[in-house]
Every structure is written in structure tokens, then in C-alpha cells.
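A note from the maintainers: we've had questions about how concatenated examples are separated. There is no special marker in the raw files; a new sequence line simply starts the next protein. For clarity in this README we add a label.
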Amino acid sequence: MKSIGQTVKMIRQVKGFTQSEVYSGVMSRSFAHRFESGENDISATKLFQILDNLLISVEEFRFIQNDYHRSSEQELQQQLQDAYAVHNLQEMGKIINDNKDSSNFSLKSIAGIGQVLVETYQSKTFSITPAMESFWKQLFNSKTWTLQEIRNANLLLPIAVSSHREHLIPTIVQRFENNCQKYLTATGDPFHVSDELMGMYLTLIQTELNTEQYSSVKQLVNKATSVDRFLLTWNGRFEQQLIVAIWNLYFGNEKDGETIIAKIAGVENLYVPPIDHNFRAIADMRRKLAKIYKKRHTH
């Protein structure tokens, strides 16, 4: 693998920057020469300055430094998410079995994530495995979540229900909202945490419906629709509309709910076979359960 300096040199030359343009005010010309040759290391502060001058993010730099590859953990988690999107339970099972007893904490956590995804697809509650408990402890015991934790934290909700820790759900949601808020700036949402927040609300509404916390669900739609839609990607907007549709199926106008679902399905149907099976599975399940709910509560 190239040194950090050698990678910086490669990027600088590809972009057509001179050493003066990149290193002025950061280091001397002689130090820069030794740095680009792999002889000298620099502090993180100086590296950040250099990357700003190169107009490149730390994440992209690490990707290039790793020979245009993500880390093995990142690759494995993406494989898991891709398999879940098309409900390839066989592939998910292989990832889980290969990593559930790993001594690598990150790989074991990914196996725990996979186990939760598989179990929540099949049932409302499930037995907690060691990998799931390890995943729970890693996230719940951490007071501050970075983006990686935020992207996985919605899975704490089904674990809480299945391990009889439902009383901690408000704490989880509050912590999630607070940590997302830190990544919002005065000018926007550079890391798309609004999408993550919408994913949490979609998980929460299903969790609350499964545990028959109907009064909480009625209030949750206000939270979801208060998120600025201009900060959401299309995925976040679809999730926001799906939450509104679910609310209508249970408590509002069923026709309005079906209209929203049909519109989202229309976009999904542009791709054959569908890219994401989860929307259809959620919509089908909620249609059936909403009818049961309405029968019970209208007589």
C-alpha cells in the first residue's frame, strides 16, 4: 500500500495542483517533497488542511488510499444490506454464520445486525443471540453515536421489544434524534441524517403497531411529516410517504393510504425485478393488519 504522502501526490498530480497550491501555509517545500516520497509523516490536522486544499473528503481519500476499495467490514455490511433488500435469506444466513463467532468485534456486530434483520422479517419477537446482545451493548452503552452507529441504531428497537426492554425505546429514539441533530448544519444536511431519521421513524411506527401502542403511533406521524422534505433524498421521501400511508390505513382515510402506496409502487415497478422488496412487504403486511385493527375498533 502507498504511504499517505504518496497517495496525496498522486491525487495532486491527477487534479493538476502544484505543490505550492496544496502545501502553502501547511509545510515547507523540502518537507513536502519528503512527505510525498513517503519519508515523513504528518499530523491529522495538517492532513485535513491538505485534503481541503485538494477538494477531497477524508472518506474518499481513505477509499483511494485503500486502492479504491472500502474496508472489508464496510464491504460485508453492504453485502448484507443488498441481500436484505431483495430478501435473499440464504446469502444473509451465510454472512451471519461466517461471522457470528468472529473474534473481530466489527464482524460479530454485522452478524448481529443480520440476525435482527432476518428475525424481524419473519416474526415480531425473537430470541436474543450473543451476537445481537453484543450489538446492543456496543450501541446502547455508547452515549454519542457517529454516522455508523446512527445508520444501525433503528435495529435497537426490535431488540428492545424482544428482550423485554420496551421501556428503553423512548431513550433510544431521543438519543437518535439528538445525535442526528449534531450533523445538521445551518445550510443543510451534508450526511443525509434526515434519511436515517425517517428510517428510524418507519421502524418505530411498525414497532409501536406491533406492540399495540396506538396512541403513540397517532402522534408519530406529526414527527415524521415535520422533517423537511427538501433535506431528504428520494429514499427518505418514500419512507416519509409510507409512514403517512400506514397512518391513513389505520387511523385516517384508507383510500388516501392506498393512493400513496400505489404511487410509490409505480416508481418501484419501473425496475424489473424490483430493486427493494421491503416496501412491498411492509405495505402488504400493514394492509392486512390495518383491516383487523379497524374491525376491532369500529364496533
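[label: protein 2]
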Amino acid sequence: MDKQELRDRVWDELEDSGEARFPYPPHGRIPNFAGADAAADRLAETDAWRSADAIKSNPDAPQLPVRRAALRAGKTVYMAVPRLRDEECFLRLDPAAIDDIDHATTIGGSAEVGVQVRPEAMPPIDLIVAGSVAVTEAGARVGKGEGYSDLEYGVLQAFDLVGESTTVATTVHERQVVAEDVPVDAHDVPLDLVVTPERTIETETPHDRPAGLDWTVLSKERIEEIPVLASLRP
């Protein structure tokens, strides 16, 4: 089964089972799911969470409870600017500067109160929380197909802000944990933790972290659209 077949199956299962949550339909996005709050609570019980000061999170609905929990715990949250379209391509959410955490952690609220920063102005990231469509217990991850999560990792890696010691986690519904072998490409970032409302999986992934930005899969058009890529291009 290829990645798109897995996406379609998981999206269908979440919808047909009634486990999908707003926004609807789950198709074509990182799907929200029943129990996202419980999965965030379980993630907050891990050592990786407790020791993290700076967290990079995706902006999607199922990880909204994660972002709120991070700010309430005094952690700084970084989110990528949509499609990395600006030179200051990350948003910093500083809990000391935010009055309304619930608003600040929404997509619209983060754009209003978040401070755009260049990677050079960021500290090393202690924990990455990625959105997923499908995952395996071995740490393979399938996103929605646009490649931005892995690309953001590559950008942070280019600035020495993430590395082998950076924990990469996701929160998902049990129906998103699949038994199939997922095709893994060289630029795919493996997961260290898969957290569902029911369990926490330490993957001990056999997959290597990407060695750097994979320029062979980046079109000239995409490089030109993303200022930070244009500045890093060899």
C-alpha cells in the first residue's frame, strides 16, 4: 500500500467510525480526532515533554491541545509561517507575553500575537510535535502529502537547531496507527514517540534522520517561493 492509499483509508475510517472531529471532512488535512485532549495529556506525562523548554509544533487542530498545554506549562512554542513564505519563517509564542492562551494557539490567533522570527533568532528545539495522517509503531510517519513538516525539519537542521537528540513526537487516534509497512524516503523524519489517547509508544525507530535538506526533491519553483531555501541553496 502506498502513502496515498494509506491516507485515503485512514481518512475514510475516521469519518465512517464517527471518530473524526471538526474541521470536516478529515480528508486532505491532518485529521482532528476524538480524544485529542487525552493524547495531549498523555504526551505531557513523558520525560521528553517535561525536559523541553522550546517546542516546535504544527498548526493543525488535533495538536491544539498540545500547544495550549505547552504555553500553560511555560514552554515557548514555535510554529512555521504557512508555507515558509516569509524570511522570518517561524512564529514565536512566548507564554510570558501572551494573555489569552486559548486564542493565541489557534491558527488565526497565532498570526495575530505570534512574533515572526528568522531561524537565526531561535534557540535549539527540544521537542518537535508533528501532525500525522498515518503512523506505524516503528516510527514511520505519513503526513497529508505536501512535505512541509519534513521541509521545516530540514530548515531547522540547517541552522543546527535540531539533531539526533531532538525528540520527534505525534499525537494521533488509534485508527491512525497502521500495521502496514510504510514507504520511507530519505527526507522523511521518523518519530520517536507516537501518543494516542490510550497509549504512548516509544518507537525505537530503525529509520535514520535525514542528513540534511534533500535538494533533489525540491523544484526550482518551490525554492524560489521560500526565501530561507533560496538563502541556503548550495
